[in-house]
Amino acid sequence: MFRGRRSRLVGMAYLAPAVIFVLVFTVYPLGQMVWMSFHNWSLITPPRWVGLGNYQRALADRQYWVSFLFTLKYTAIITPILIVGGYLLALLTVERSPLRRLTRTTVFIPVVIGLGVSSLLWYWLFSADFGPINKALMDLGIISKPVLWLGVDADRSNLAIIASVTWKVMGFGMILFVGAIQAVPTDITEASLVDGASYWQRVTRVILPLTLRSVLLVTLVSVIGSLLAFDQFYIMTAGQPQNETATSVFYIYLNSFPYLRLGYGAALSLILALTILAFTVVQLLLTRRSHA
Amino acid sequence: MTATVARRQRAGVVATRARARGRSGYLLGAVCVAICAVMLAPLVMSVLASVKPTAEAAASPPTYLPHGLSLDSYERLWTYQQGLPTYLFNSLGTALLAIAFTLALTVPAGYALARFEIPGKEVIFVVLLLALIVPYQALLTPMFLLFARVGLTNTLVGLAILHTAIQLPFSLYVLRNSLSAVPRELEEAAIVDGASSWQVLLRILVPATVPAIVTVALFAFIMSWNEFLGALVLMSRGSSFTLPLILAAARTETSLGGTDWGMLQAGVTISIIPCVLVYLLLQRYYVSGLMSGAVK
Predict the structure, then answer these.
(1) A230-242, pLDDT tens digit by residue?
(2) DSSP secondary structure, B252-263, as one string
(3) Host domain of residue B177
């Protein structure tokens, strides 16, 4: 549209504020984080070069592994629930009827509220003595005395939190799957109807293969989000018992802020960032292909 | 000939399917109703808990439905610590600043990427999307140190800058695509008439990309209003807490009688209302934003 040297300068002027912003508030912190990860630094004493010391320390740090493995466990349990659940909800609500559309809208509502706020809501729902969940389970005769859901047993806390996060984010995958299923050409699905395929045959042989890329994409987004989990654990268990439910991000937060081990926190951040990077690269490749 | 057969066959199949749907339709309808009930129940319970009278809100075991209605919990929240107005102001102020910063940076940048010939444009675009690759959770310590040095911790501007950094890649991606898709004829006419590039942007491109701008503003608002970890790190002073922060702090309140459950749910209700309203009003922008930028 605009050509020539003068307009090139004008274009750069439009672009400059965003470029400067990203350099100052993303690239520079990233560089500083890498630098910090090679130092011991507590804010009180000046930084001291330790080379790869912080990384070696992580390998031998029991709590680092507890946090990492707990985060993996959380991710491994919640991801299939979100994907299968989201896909089934999409199949249910993709049909054009007012009730189905209302269901779609309703399932999506929790996606727009904050994870922190929904965790506060579920913190109360799961409260042992004051929460409606124990009350309902007791009234139904399923349990005889209140269950201590949160902060006493790591696995039980994990299940309670997974239930709350499933409620909160299942609609995200559903909406993207609805979009993908709607994009399947109708002549293909009609052709399979003529062939006498049952509904589930149509789903597994036609719709699912044609929406596989969306399934992969949503899986990756879910995995990345789960590996970065923090709010729900900080609010619902505060890492208890004994930091067994402190996720990777939670442990980075603990090291960086309350403990002021800035260098060690930075090394852990970098390890996490590289883990996420592997997933993100795959995700971006998939996104790019789906736009091409 | 074969086409006719196929068509007749298809009509038959569709009719069979309609009959099958009639039978299972009621069942699936019931499933839909049940799902809606499960999804709405926590929200409804929270609202109901927030309007229980003080004694009932603290009862163990809890009641399902309020036996009496009262705004006591909201009154306690109104004056809790620095008072609800302070926290609402902080949350809303941060969100509005984050929207303003995001649009001020990404509309011109998207314009530059969509319409100008700039050397190394593709590389610059990739660098600008960097934050998509680096999770902001990993950058909070250096951000905190930077903000502490220039006095931006405990300020709404500082938190809004962090939220802008989080939101910038998505916004730029959406706006660049949307601006690129505007047909060039109108602009060409305006340029022939002597319009400057700035006038072209404001008078032609911005009005033509209102849906994308609304989408970007909507996502920035919801992210900023709800964001927790960054606020937790940057805002240490009680008077600069956002709504999620003060509620998380109130959760662990252990003075006299433990957690104030009624007040907590009043706070949850107030936090949820703007998000749900904005979503119900602007649903199609929200969904189109998710579809176009499912990268984050």
Answers:
(1) 999 999 999 989 9
(2) T--STTS--HHH
(3) 74-292
What is the CATH number for B105?
1.10.3720.10
Chain A interface includes B162 (CB < 8 A): yes
Architecture category of domain A38-291 in CATH: Orthogonal Bundle (1.10)
| Sign (positive or negative) of CA dihedral B228, B271, B168, A174 | positive
Specify if B159 maps to a domain. yes
Does the beta carbon of B126 lie under 8 angstroms from any beta carbon of chain A?
Answer: no
| Domain assignment of residue B210, yes or no | yes
Residues of chain B neighbouring A176 (CB-CB closer than 8 A) = 290-291, 294
Residue B54 lies in a domain: no
Evaluated on CA atoms B48, B53, B57, B59, the torsion sign reads negative
- Considering the domain architecture, whether residues B264 and B218 belong to the same structural domain is answered as yes
The per-residue pLDDT for B191 is: 86
| pLDDT tens, position by position, B84-125 | 999 999 999 999 999 999 999 999 999 999 999 888 888 888
pLDDT single digits (tens) A183-231: 888 888 778 777 788 888 889 888 999 999 899 989 999 999 999 999 9
Question: Domains of chain A: which residue ranges?
Answer: 38-291
CB contact under 8 A, A12 and B118: yes
Angle at A276 between CA A270 and CA A280, to 5 degrees: 135
CA distance B265 to chain A (A): 7
- B128 with B37, same domain? no
Task: Give the torsion through C-alpha atoms of B240, B245, B247, B250, to 10 deg.
Answer: -80
